[in-house]
Amino acid sequence: MALGKLRALRHALVAAVLTGALLPVVSTGVATAATALPPGFVLRDTSTGLGQYQLTDFAYLPDNSILATGKGGAVRWLPVSGTGKTIATLPVRIDEDLGLVGLAVAPDYATSHSIYLSRAINTSGGFVMRMSRFTVTVDATGAPSGLTGEQSLFEVPGFFNVHGINGITAAADGTIWMSIGDNADFRQVDAGALRAQDINQPYGKILHLTADGKGVPGNPYYDANNPGSTASKVFARGFRNPFRFSVDANLGLPVAGDVGWNTWEEVSVVPRGGNMGWPCWEGTHPTPGYSGLAGCGGVQNQPPIFEYQHGSGIMQGNSVTGGIVYNGSSYPASYRGSYFFGDYVTHKIWTLRYDDQGKLTQAPENPPVFTDIGGPTKFAAAPNGDIVYADILTGNLRRLTYSANNTAPVANASSTTDPDTRTVSFDGSASVDYDNDPLKYDWDFGDGTTAANAGPKVTHAYAPGTETFTAKLTVRDPLGATGTTDIAVAPGNHTPQLTLTTPGDTATFAVNQEVAVSATATDAEDGTLPITWTTAVRHCPSEATCHSHPGIGGTGTSFAQPFTEHPDSRMEFTATVTDSAGVATSKTYTAMPRQHRLTLLSTQPAALSIPVEGGVSSALVTEGASFDVEAAPLGIDGVSKFTGWQGGPTATTWVITVGSSDMTLTANYATPIDQRYDGDPALRTKLGAPIGTEVTDGPVHYRVYQNGRLYWSAVGGTKYVTGPVLDKYLAIGGSNGFGPPTSDTAATPDGLAQYNHFNNSGNVGSIYYTAAYGAHTIYGEIRKKWAARDYERGLGYPTTDELGTPDGVGRYNHFNKNGNIGSIYYTGAYGANAIFGEIRKKWAALDYERGLGYPITDELATPDGVGRYNHFSLNHSIYYTPATGAHAVKGEIRKRWAALGWERSYLRYPTTDEYVTNGVYRSDFQGGYITFTLSGGAVDRPW
């Protein structure tokens, strides 16, 4: 079938491995593939040297070079310019989805050289999936040359060659995020997929780990006594194959693409403790073949923010690749803050937008505007924020650049002269491109000769005769933008000599700290020359988005200025001298900021922002800088309220000054649980002190106290459950088994019982506890019937949970009211009906439903008010009066009695059950009897 072919294609594309054939290396340039892009956008390709079906992941290093991984185990280093090289080849298992598939660069890479890799590895008994930290070794030039010191941080056995460890994200706070699929058989319904629901198994999860591989204390199931447990590591569950996720810098939450099974692909903003529902749900739909499994009972689904159906239609696809939020500034404003994601089977990229509550605010474009763009398997941001993705179909990194906003490069050049040979050496390596594009250098020497694409450093010998020339350097980026500068040249003149004295290249400065520099200048022809100083503030939100703000200048041998308060900036102090021939020499000292890591945290997931840093929640900021930080009034759940900053104001905005070390600011949020507990002294007395942090379990939150629990849900609000009712609730699976509570634990009016009501996806249930009968569940149609009969005031208290009858057809609860036993039985055919007292005793004596069938009426009163009765599904009835007791009437005798008018006939009420005498069936009544034989049928006679 077509769908099966699509699934096979999806897995084949990931699994494909070329044996011994790599694509030839091509230079960086504008892509020529038949892509369809919005106006102004271009794709620029860089070969990784890995070839088709090999490129799985990539990441930028601090110097803007790139590490890339190949499915077969290769780790490649791609310099900013020049030829890449393979620095390591790791042993891997490469079957189907497996191989070397995940890469992250540690935030302290500049000093630690640490990276993280995930891969599958063969073992004697099968294979394992492992995430490890490695150290990148470097050569004499500082270029990566190898990997060493593997430290395994996470390892689990593998079951199938699909849906293993997918992605790794190394967060600025030193923690590690990781995704792993269900590792179940995709070809059929596999009960092993239910591992995705079990918080004690790592499969089908997004995990949040400390740097040593333990659980992060803020995780929803974290156990301080066992931080290395699987549950302690789980951030969210219920994923089939979360193939690529990123952590939204504003929300602090993962945003993931989850690859579907038969029908649906998903994109989700993943809340703490979220349950995305797999395998019980696919998107917002119960999964055929899985949803009926016992392990799916009561599983609630966190709906994705977007889902799309399998197929080849305009808005369809077959394998989602989770992406990233665009936080650059070169794209049109309509794309800023948009989430880019793709489908690698159908070669599309969409964008969508969501708000600070993680709710969809702008659906993906219909039709998609980025099509035929290759097979994206990983998205990342270029240094200037451009969207870059790994194309598994070609092995290229493809950078999506908006050409209309391409920044022209800036040409800078200097020269030195050997007057004896009239040779001038030119150096244009100080030229910059703020889009981080590689540059080409074209030289015009001013004497009629040129050198095109000659590199940043050239020399040129001038012929005698003319003493001054004006040379020109033109630099070009890949999109054709240019920058030029003129250089005055006097071939027979010595270049002025300038000596600059500075605080040193390793010095850093706080805001308003004085930066002092000095210089001396001499010239062979002119002697001592006067020095002119210029300054600039270089604002660099990222290394690729630097731009200058001119500052104050001066003259003299020394110069000083306070360090700028402009955020993300450095200061440039340039000394310039010019000799009598017009030849100038300049030298620049760059004063770097003394920076510290500012991290915003919150007690509940919430949108936190450092506006001056582009709205992220963690950034390097300059010592002494003052600016505001902001917290959303409500948490991501929409109900947790901001109450103030720890150690700071109660307002959501706090103006802070950066100190002399790293800073962590924590925003306090009172969840609905906190709000109720803190605001109710009587409740605090009842529940006692909290003994654990608040836990998020999908749409339900709870917190454990000495004497019970508080639960919050959108359907039930904040309610407490205590005592034996709580014990029973937990024994049946808590909110996952019975839904969240919709009432507090309360006493019944007679004071004999305690109870809570619950709601499981619209199915209302209750747990009632009495000392005599214990705690029992009652729900669904049986509970509705019990409620209709006035709860315990009618039939009494439940003495059993809802149970199934031996034949599997019916369900029932038993009850007891002052020693009077009753029951409610339910079947799909006859609904729920109550039976109790003497009639129930007679029914029980006749073997319950195995004798007369199921009750098809409640116990009812006869029209004359004397008797009571139930009818049953096998065409039987039991009638009761105080004078006659309870007796069963059935079959042909019952038909004859009914034809005569039941108890209104002369026979009145039965005084015996049906019995047999001399081969004749007979029932006796107050006014006579009815006999039945096969030959004579049913005959009534008076006494």
From TrEMBL:
Classification via SMART domains: PKD
Domain PKD: 437-463
PROSITE patterns recorded: PKD
Pfam family, one: LGFP
InterPro entries with a match to the protein in the record: 6-blade_b-propeller_TolB-like, Glc/Sorbosone_DH, Ig-like_fold, LGFP, PKD/Chitinase_dom, PKD_dom, PKD_dom_sf, Quinoprot_gluc/sorb_DH_b-prop
Entry-linked PANTHER family: HEDGEHOG-INTERACTING PROTEIN, HIPL1 PROTEIN
Protein's recorded name: PQQ-dependent sugar dehydrogenase
